[in-house]
């Protein structure tokens, strides 16, 4: 299921990996570099050698001492390495690694069935995951629902193909896991007819914010738009290939899907009417990122992959791409990190239901910060997913910060009826206030003023059950302090 490689200083086992590690070390600004915490100058600094397992905190030793040889794992996307539509604290890890280790992880979009010829055919990994015939499916459970659901096992109560989980040796509740995204690239179509190209699907679907508010007939319609991306990186924009309206699809098990209601249903090309020459001369900037990335929550054993929460998950922020770092609170032993829902591009809000859902591969490094080392550090009391880019810190607010805890026994159903932007905005405000007071040693009055004049709030998504608002603060507003 995975292969490993010992990489030390100067290793160049893959041009993507080696180049990415160098660029990341060169470009990355230290997290909260030169900020004042409780009167003490704190700097995580620019991480030195990429083979070092951790950074040092003021007032606390490193999580691990220098690790001369980091292990680099390769985790392909196959029927044996993915789980479809859910997070679970009971899943057996695909691999267990140590703090400081690297992993190249393949991810597949759950929308590959929207164009089998371009997104599945000729790709052994995709064919493995999406295999479905009259005798059954290679990955049967698709969602957190019951196995005997009338739509299919799991009921589509969760849709994302997640690679993993990955366990971090020694991770315990109360720790923080740092995940660095060193590189991201598109997965080339396995069909020789489309060599050098990658394809993604955008679904204007029944769960989209726009649905029920259309002005052309039929006013209730779902539309799939297939986009083409240059897999070789010579063109940094995507273009529309064609679109079609969803028609009732009969899956290989004989179940009819009048709407998009179960993931991975292969669309019969004879049943649709493709429209070409759409969005002519329009170039969509490619911003590869992972929509779903996070740890297993402790509150329930089988958790729908759609609503995000305090351990991450389906955040759908396009900033979670190459060069970014995510910090997650650990709630179960090992952390159990999974990644999926890869996107070629997306705008804030993901309004119609999806991004350009496009299979990607990423290179990641995992750094474990033990709870005992977090006192008087910026990561102390971290209870939400935190994103760091080269220029910004981004905090994620949700309608319900921990909906599994906040909404009771039926939380996974209740969340879809109770989300709102105002609740998510209030949560983002609370988190950014805490962040500024904690990391910049500000009073509440100072933090509130700064929130209004220097922090940008945006709608992350309004289609994932637990709606999201992000708060962005630029690093440059904080001067270095002696």
From TrEMBL:
Coiled-coil regions listed: none
One Pfam match: FmdA_AmdA
Domain of life the protein comes from: Bacteria
Gene Ontology terms for molecular function: hydrolase activity, acting on carbon-nitrogen (but not peptide) bonds, in linear amides
Protein name: Acetamidase
